[in-house]
Specification:
It holds the Pfam family EGF_2. It comes from Liparis tanakae. Keywords: Disulfide bond, EGF-like domain. This is Latent-transforming growth factor beta-binding protein 2. The chain is elongated. It has 90 residues and is α+β, with helices and mostly antiparallel strands. Strand 3 and strand 4 form a beta hairpin. It has one helix and six strands. It has a domain of 55 residues.
Length: 90
C-alpha cells in the first residue's frame, strides 16, 4: 500500500509514510511548502562557519545600515549650491 499525505506534498516532495513528506533540497515544512533560506558557509581554520547571505564575514565591526539610513546619510553629504554672484566687467 502506498503512503498517503493529505494535503499532498508540494514542490515535488515525496510522501514516505502517512502524513510525512520528504522534501527535496531547497524546501522545508510539513508539506514542503516553504523555500529553505539560502545558507552560505566559509572555511574558518579547520571548521565550517555559517554566515548570513548578503554579509561580508571578512569586514570587521561595520554595522549594516538600512537603505533608509544610507539615503539620509547620502543626502546630508550633498552641498547646497552657492548663489551665483554677478560678474563685474573688467
Amino acid at each position: 500500500m502506498e503512503a498517503d499525505c493529505q494535503p499532498p506534498c508540494q514542490n515535488r516532495g515525496s510522501c514516505s509514510r502517512p502524513q510525512t513528506c520528504v522534501c527535496r533540497s531547497g524546501f522545508q515544512g510539513p508539506r514542503c511548502e516553504e523555500v529553505t533560506p539560502e545558507q552560505v558557509y566559509i572555511r574558518d581554520g579547520g571548521a565550517l562557519k555559517r554566515v548570513q547571505p548578503g554579509t561580508n564575514p571578512f569586514q570587521k565591526d561595520q554595522p549594516r545600515r538600512r537603505p533608509s539610513e544610507r539615503q539620509a546619510i547620502d543626502t546630508a553629504r550633498v552641498q547646497t549650491p552657492r548663489p551665483a554672484t554677478p560678474r563685474q566687467p573688467v
